[in-house]
Amino acid sequence: MTEFRTRVTSLLGAVLMMFAGSALAQGKGLVPFQEGLHYFKIDNATELTGDKVEVLEMFSYLCSHCATFDPFANSWAARAPEYVEFRRVPVVFGRSSWEIYARAYATSQIMNLPEEAHTGMMDRLWKERKMMRSLEEIADFYVQFGADREKFLSTAKSFAVDGMVRKDQQLVRDYGIRGTPSMVVNGKYRVTASSALPSFEAMLEAVDYLVGIERARLKSESVAAE
To answer: Which of 28, 75, 209, 222 is 20 to 30 Å apart from 84, CA to CA?
Structure first.
């Protein structure tokens, strides 16, 4: 009986050591995120150069998951290092209702409306449950953030906004975006919530991991060019 207990105790000890070692390895970053599981390399990607690592959030105001993700993305962007350039890209997916909001977001960017307008829009749609179905209604909404209503409408229908929306949708296609929210790191890697990344926190940890890879690459290329 004593020998049996000794064997069981030894076995339990070995199992505990195995789990402890695994946890320690992950804590030290020795277990990396895996391509094809936690993130995907974009086909025919063109590596971006320069001093900044670009991170894009592909989103839609009419995506409920994007509304849930928004506070996480805002928190991440606030703490991102200075060498990260963060930008949102509104996704359309061929839906006319989504295009109105993509056009509205592009207009707000061209008019340099405050960042609070973005969060305000999410809150209007998902907390207050007040849907806006026309650019006129949306223009009324942006007035509270300093927009001139008529200027907003004329800008929303301008060639500049047309061009921005077209360019953004080309990125959606080039980066193989199939769902929102998704993150794209330096035009090279795509990260989307999945069973392998079961939380938005885990999704952003994968983004941090990829940002680190790209930061190291850019620094290495900069040193080699000197």
So the answer is: 28
With b for 16 or more beta-carbon neighbours within 10 A and e for fewer, the 17-43 pattern comes to eeeeeeeeeeeeeeeebeeeebbbebe
| pLDDT above 50 for 15 | no
State pTM to two decimals.
Answer: 0.84
What pLDDT does residue 31 have? Answer: 53
- Six-digit token string for 221: 């290329």
Written as six digits, the tokens of 100 are: 């109105």
Please provide the average confidence, as pLDDT, over all residues in the chain. 87
Starting at the earlier edge strand, list the strands of the sheet with 84-90: 40-41, 189-192, 182-185, 53-59, 84-90
Question: Which residues, 6+ apart, have CB-to-CB distance to 63 below 8 Å?
Answer: 91, 180, 181
Question: What end-to-end distance do the CA atoms of the chain give, in Å?
Answer: 71
Task: Give mean pLDDT, residues 135-157.
Answer: 98
The phi and psi torsions of 152 (rounded to 5 degrees) equal -60, -45
Residue linked to tokens 């307008």 = 117
Tokens encoding 210: 């990829």
The one-letter amino acid at 204: L
**Nearest CA among 177, 186, 175, 192 for reference residue 214:** 186
Instruction: Report residue 4's pLDDT band, with 50, 70 and 90 as the boundaries.
Output: very low
Query: CA 34: distance to chain centroid?
Result: 18
Alpha carbon 86 to chain centroid, angstroms: 9
Residue range 178-192: mean pLDDT, rounded: 96
Cβ neighbours for 24, distance < 8 A, ≥ 6 positions apart = none
Question: Which residue is associated with the tokens 């060498």?
Answer: 83
